[in-house]
Design a protein that fits this description.
transcription regulation; two-component regulatory system; transcription; alpha/beta; AfsR-DnrI-RedD_regulator; 34 helices; 3-stranded antiparallel sheet; Sig_transdc_resp-reg_C-effctor
Length: 678
């Protein structure tokens, strides 16, 4: 086909779809200059893969047929190029420069769903929901089987010896995409690079951190799974990775602005800001970068555009961060504009003086993460109305409540522009509550000299200071309702996120979320992130045994992973064998200052003497589940008294309640082992 004919076809299709050249270039992953040259008829024999990407980005099957795209034919593929999957943008499978055919739209959607959750089991119900969204054909089971078979054939046909295996495995009622080597799936590579960037940050190496973040962000060729059906594009995992992209870009911008690298900020944040049109943090940093590079007029135009969108689409005015960035531009002070890219000075800076703890870089996602985020930001079925939402997390020892709390707080922080207040309580004693209130009040701008000594007066002053502010209050290790009540923000706008071992069932208006143990897949995923993916995948069965012996407790799994990382000469089978010895299991679950036994001892010693006696007696008398009648016989008390004791142990997260009407109470394995030592 002549260059003129191709140019006419592409230009007509783009015009028909109302898409600009810049947007089409971004959606198709083709350079803007290259697209312009194609439309001008100046490219001799445009590559079929490029034309096919243009046709798919425009959803123009007629154009695809007319240009005769044949990318994926065997003759186009370098013999030594490995298979690479990409979903940070439009879904693609490539070998070298050749793009492979990935099948029908439904098959591509299924491949995208598996890649989005690589190394995790995707259940059949989730596949059905994403592929058909309620319009289920009679032959859906056979269709899923067909799509999986075709995906397997494509992966096997293009997997080279010695380049690492890529396969779809059957796991119970679902399927799992396994890929050896992060670089062969861009979303895994993005996770690896951001994890390394977090390590660099912890090691106070901003130059290396910035380089890693820049490399990670370059993997994005557009929005994740560009052009995918809404059920896939809006998947929880997709939303979370889009958030991580924004968070990485914000951190990179802060590092680059501090070094005066304004063009780097514009290059990295520009493509993201076109989709995050209401994200004030992104646009505040863009204002700073434009002002710093001498483009004050463009910065003010950008502010005016964001201001209009906020008022029209959300009915709100720009927040402090964006407004102060605008004022810095109006003052023609580039240095001030740079400073405004970080959280604004004054009130927000004061709030940041109460810092969230460092989040773990190898955090494994869980369903509670998404549920609590939705609740705190007023989304989803549990959204609170009127009063400030209060989310109260509870769960067993070592289940990861603190890590989850930090991750959630960091994820929703942008919804609370007035800042985040954090406190960790131990006993809930009045002096401890008073100390927390004084810290909160100072963070809200109250002078230390003006703080009253009495707890009621201090609580009243704090409530007056926090009223009307969009603040998130985070309280970890919440010991009880009485201790946390004075810390909760009142009225709309604010929110509270609480975490503690016991459920705060007496807290008015709180929504309770139990943090569950890890599934086997989540445990293996955490092991792989700590001890090395290739190493863990090579002994998948042994890894699952380690996960089972750790009882799905993230602390125990983390310790196991750290021991493996410190001992590269150990196999996972060797560690599983050591953990299998019940008499030594708790002694094995120690790494540095992390110890499962110490955490359980702290929980045990926090019980009153009656409960401690009950734990010892019950743990030594039964390996299996027991009824209240069984407990009454062991404890030598009445049936009602025995049941009350069991329920109190359930509240303390040291006993699992009956799973059904005909089942009994049971000790989690690690709790039982610890109790028998007492």
């Amino acid at each position: 086909m002549a260059e003129r004919d191709v140019a006419t076809l592409v230009r007509a299709a783009r015009t028909r779809n109302g898409v600009s050249q810049r947007d089409l270039a971004e959606k198709s992953g083709i350079g803007l200059r290259t697209l312009r040259e194609i439309e001008r008829g100046r490219v001799r024999a445009p590559r079929s893969g490029s034309l096919r990407r243009i046709a798919e980005a425009l959803h123009e099957p007629a154009l695809l047929a007319q240009v005769g795209a044949t990318a994926g034919a065997e003759g186009d593929i370098p013999e030594d190029a490995p298979l690479v999957l990409r979903i940070l943008g439009r879904l693609s499978a490539t070998r070298g420069a050749a793009e492979l055919l990935t099948g029908t739209p439904k098959q591509r959607t299924l491949l995208g769903l598996l890649a989005l959750q690589a190394h995790q089991v995707v259940e059949r119900d989730e596949i059905i929901e994403v592929l058909w969204d309620g319009e289920l054909p009679d032959t859906f089971g056979q269709l899923i089987h067909t799509y999986i078979s075709r995906i397997r054939l494509m992966l096997e046909a293009h997997t080279l010896p010695g380049t690492g295996r890529t396969a779809v495995l059957r796991r119970g009622g679902g399927y799992e995409l396994r890929i050896e080597g992060d670089s062969r799936l861009d979303i895994l590579e993005f996770g690896r690079l951001t994890h390394e960037a977090a390590r660099a940050r912890a090691g106070d190496d901003p130059v290396h951190e910035q380089a890693l973040l820049a490399e990670a962000l370059r993997l994005w060729r557009g929005q994740l799974l560009e052009g995918a059906p809404p059920r896939l594009a809006g998947h929880t995992a997709a939303v979370e990775h889009a958030r991580l992209r924004v968070a990485s870009a914000l951190r990179l911008a802060d590092l680059a602005l501090a070094r005066g690298q304004y063009e780097e900020v514009l290059a990295q944040l520009g493509p993201i800001a076109r989709h995050e049109v209401l994200h004030e943090g992104l646009h505040a940093r863009l204002l700073s970068a434009l002002a710093g590079s001498g483009r004050r007029a463009e910065a003010l135009e950008l502010f005016a555009a964001v201001d209009r969108r906020l008022r029209v689409e959300s009915g709100i005015e720009p927040g402090t961060e964006l407004r102060e960035a605008q004022m810095a531009v109006l003052g023609d002070d580039a240095r001030t504009a740079t400073a405004m890219a970080a959280p604004p000075a004054g009130r927000a800076d004061a709030l940041r003086s109460v810092q969230l703890p460092q989040s773990v870089g190898d955090f494994v996602g869980r369903v509670e993460h998404f549920q609590v985020r939705q609740y705190l930001t007023g989304q989803g079925p549990l959204a609170a109305f009127g009063a400030a939402p209060v989310a109260a997390l509870h769960g067993p020892v070592g289940v990861g409540k603190s890590a989850l709390t930090v991750q959630i707080a960091a994820a929703v922080a942008r919804h609370f522009p007035d800042g985040v207040l954090h406190a960790r309580l131990r006993t809930g004693a009045p002096d401890e509550v008073r100390t927390a209130l004084r810290g909160f009040a100072r963070a809200l701008g109250v002078p230390t000299a003006g703080l009253p000594a009495g707890l009621p007066e201090l609580a009243a002053l704090y409530q007056e200071s926090v009223a009307g502010r969009r603040v998130l209050v985070v309280v970890d290790d919440a010991p009880g309702e009485r201790a946390v009540r004075p810390l909760l923000p009142s009225g709309p706008g604010g929110a509270a996120l609480l975490a503690g071992r016991n459920p705060l069932s007496g807290l008015e208006g709180a929504q309770h979320f139990r943090v569950e143990r890890f599934t086997a897949d989540q445990s293996v995923s955490l092991l792989a992130r700590i001890a090395g993916e290739r190493r863990v995948l090579a002994e998948r069965t042994a890894a699952e045994t380690v996960a089972e012996l750790c009882d799905g407790i993230p602390l125990a799994v983390r310790i196991a992973g750290m021991r493996l990382a410190a001992r590269p000469h150990w196999t996972l089978a060797r560690l599983a064998d050591r953990l299998a010895d019940e008499e030594r299991r708790l002694s094995e679950l120690v790494a540095g200052d992390l110890s499962v036994r110490e955490r359980l001892t702290s929980a045990y010693e926090g019980l009153d003497p009656v409960l401690r006696d009950a734990v010892r007696a019950l743990a030594r008398s039964a390996d299996r589940a027991f009824t209240p009648a069984d407990a009454a016989a062991v404890l030598r008390c009445g049936g009602r008294q025995a049941e009350d004791l069991l329920e109190r142990l359930v509240d303390h997260q040291l006993l699992e309640p009956p799973a059904g009407a005909c089942e009994g109470y049971a000790f989690p394995p690690l709790v039982r082992l610890h109790a028998r030592e007492q």
